[in-house]
Design a protein that fits this description.
Length: 416
């Protein structure tokens, strides 16, 4: 399917003006696309569930200005946080702790204290996490993250459920975790599960949800207490290639609600249904605008950019595929096969390998698509390269939401 931001990548005047004003490389986000994604996901939940809560997974993109904009588009939006820093982001964005969930793993005492002080719903990754939390103080409400023994993801590295995953309480131990918490006086509970990332098959969510609800009923029977919410976490994918289908989120939620209300036929008394998407809300709303810095014909043919693995880590980390276009000519003939690389002193610094691509020259602009999630959030400073700026593109203007880092910024905490 054609990319929803293809018209932006094809707007040469717009992209050249952004490059001139803000420099490259530059993360450009479409406010309109973010709003569309949020409204679509929320509407799908609203149509299928009596009670629900939507939390944005801050790890996908942690810019407070962006999160604040999302909150303005859906005032009931909460945050899914996994670190004290992400708790800071949602607070800056105007979210209260009660609207948020904190899902850490292998948490330090400082992590747990931050979560407890924020008044977010604490979602624990293990029984030992509860032991550490108990030494600090216990909240009135709690949930555990279950590992159902299976998972799925675009890459093996992002599968967060199953026997190789580092996350979650094994399903065989989940009842014990809730019994332990109940015995210590916890009276309000939820149940959380996230088993992967980037999933595009709706049947997978149904299989996972069946397993989750079976565990929910077992837990409720063991502790003689109804769960306040049941969460499927994230995992909702986006297409990164033209031939990939988009996820029919409306049908996914419709099917999950059928399963849900078979288990909980009294809709008024049923738990609330929670979701914590990240990629689905912001992934396809971002373009990395970058400039050609060099061309090389060697054993392989290379297009060098001013963005590399330090700017966009996913291709180097996972071998992830991103659609890449010549700005202003997205339908240009692919007349060569190249590797597209940055300026980093690592041979893994490839944003694309063996990619059919149009002829370009030094100074031409290139747009890398689907970078709204895990783009800037995973950017780093290797080779002492400062991180890029971020811009939010509204209908009639652009807004600088993060200044470009300088070399001096990198060393500001060094006393030389």
């Amino acid at each position: 399917m054609a990319h929803p931001l293809l018209h932006i990548a094809n707007d040469k005047n717009l992209m050249e003006s952004l490059a001139e004003e803000y420099g490259t490389p530059l993360y450009v986000y479409s406010a309109q696309r973010i709003s569309e994604n949020i409204q679509r996901f929320n509407n799908a939940l609203q149509l299928s569930f009596n009670k629900y809560h939507l939390c944005y997974a801050v790890k996908a993109n942690n810019n407070p200005n962006l999160v604040s904009y999302m909150k303005s588009q859906l005032p009931l939006l909460g945050g899914d946080c996994s670190s004290p820093g992400e708790l800071c982001v949602v607070k800056q964005a105007g979210m209260s702790g009660e609207e948020c969930i904190y899902s850490g793993n292998y948490e330090s005492a400082e992590d747990l204290q931050s979560a407890l002080s924020s008044n977010a719903w604490i979602n624990l990754d293990d029984i030992t996490s509860f032991d550490r939390l108990k030494r600090i103080g216990l909240p009135k409400r709690l949930s555990f993250r279950i590992n159902p023994g299976f998972g799925k993801g675009t890459f093996s590295q992002v599968v967060t459920g199953g026997k190789d995953a580092k996350f979650g309480v094994p399903k065989e131990k989940i009842v014990e975790a809730y019994r332990t918490a109940a015995a210590e006086g916890i009276a309000r509970f939820g149940l959380h599960c996230m088993t992967g990332s980037g999933v595009l098959e709706k049947a997978y969510f149904e299989n996972m949800f069946n397993a989750l609800l079976a565990a929910a009923r077992e837990i409720e029977a063991a502790i003689q207490c109804s769960l306040e919410f049941i969460s499927v976490g994230g995992g909702f994918g986006i297409p990164y290639k033209n031939e990939e289908p988009s996820l029919n989120i409306e049908k996914v939620m419709e099917n999950l609600s059928t399963i849900f209300y078979q288990q909980y036929p009294d809709r008024a008394q049923a738990p609330s249904f929670w979701c914590e998407p990240g990629k689905f809300l912001v992934g396809d709303a971002g373009i990395l605008l970058t400039k050609v810095t060099g061309l090389k014909e060697g054993y392989r043919n290379f297009i060098g950019l001013d963005a590399g693995m330090e700017t966009l880590m996913r291709p180097g980390l996972y071998g992830a595929y991103h659609r890449i276009y010549k700005v202003g000519d997205v339908d240009a003939e692919h007349s060569q096969v190249v590797d597209i690389t940055g300026r980093i002193c690592e041979n893994t610094d490839r944003l694309a390998v063996d990619r059919p691509f149009p002829k370009v020259g030094e100074g031409d602009l290139v747009g890398i698509m689907d970078v709204g999630a895990y783009g800037y959030a995973m950017a780093h400073q290797f080779n002492t390269r400062p991180r890029p700026a971020e811009v939010l593109l509204h209908e009639n203007h652009s807004e600088l939401i993060r200044k470009r880092e300088t070399i001096e910024d990198i060393f500001q905490n060094c006393n030389v």
